[in-house]
Amino acid sequence: MLVRIDHASTTPLAEQIAAGVRGSAIRGEIGPGDRLPSARALAESIDVNLHTVLRAYATLRDEGLIDLRRGRGAVIRAEFDSGRTALNESAREFVRQARNLGLDTAHMLDLIKETSTQ
């Protein structure tokens, strides 16, 4: 699992870390039962404060993505919903609406690219 953060971003570091873990889960890079790096190891590898990583892990725990246990660390839950189902449904709805407006695939991709840079 690779977590990338942008120290210059206005998005808080803990949110960036949590988003990185979520993204890894959605892409299938990590799955149920996989252990995340210890908070200390991750903090050192991405050059952030330990408490920032702990805050990100707490957010992921509250979302139901991970279990946090002493001595066992952070583990991806077996029954987690990565959000991929909801994301797929949103994508289908986007495509449906775009088609109703007469957009072809190239225009949809342009719209996505334009939106993702904002």
Task: Report what the structure shows.
- The chain has 118 residues and is mainly alpha-helical.
- It has 2 domains: 13-76, Arc Repressor Mutant, subunit A (Orthogonal Bundle); 84-116.
- The protein contains 5 helices and 2 strands.
- It has helices spanning 13-26, 39-46, 50-63, 84-100, 105-116; strands at 66-69, 73-76.
- Strands 1-2 form a two-stranded antiparallel ribbon.
- β1 (66-69) and β2 (73-76) form a beta hairpin.
- α1 packs across α3 and α2 crosses α3.
- The radius of gyration is 17 Å and the shape is globular.
- It starts with 12 loop residues before the first helix and ends with a helix.
- The mean pLDDT is 89.
- GO terms for molecular function: DNA binding; DNA-binding transcription factor activity.
- It holds the Pfam family GntR.
- Keywords: DNA-binding, Transcription, Transcription regulation.
- Residues 11-79 form the HTH gntR-type domain.
- This is Putative GntR family transcriptional regulator.
